[in-house]
What does this fold into?
Amino acid sequence: MNRLQRLAIVCIALNLLLVCLFPPYDYLSMQRGVPTFDGFHFVFGEHANQRMNTDLLAIEVIVLLINACIAWLLLRERPIGQALPGGNRYQRGVLWFVALNLILIALFPPFQNYAAISKATLPSFEGFYFLFADNSQRQLVGAILYLEACLVLINGGILWLLLKGRGQEKLTAAEIRARAQEIQAVQRKG
It folds into this structure.
């Protein structure tokens, strides 16, 4: 594990701690009878008429862990004379794109107005709203949020596989000796 990977692990651990200390809560109204998204509150605080939104918390943790795996792949050191870690530059671009999409999905989840809630298999939604905005009249649509995250991961995986390079070349004995001499020369200098 190199220095950048250790730094990424520390950042992910701090993010996980923050997510667990301030989980999302839904407000349980006596009039409406339907939970609406209330925001993020301190886990050890008093929460009258509120319940933890475990669906959104699970998605937050999953996005953090997937982004941690992506960071681990992107921050690997490259041995001399070998391809980029995590694949070629197109594959690395796909990893960055997937990580960015997962963050955007978590920041702008689908919401629906509490008055439009029905018992449909897939609920309708009002739109995508910023997670930290006033969403007191809206309910988070967990099913659509799960579908979004799954589709981004599946499409990212397929694209990553499609952009895979040819694999390692077959080197002749002379080329192997030349590479070994290059590596020894670099190690003597460093």
The chain has one domain: 3-189. The chain has a mean pLDDT of 81. The first strand starts at residue 24 and ends at 28.
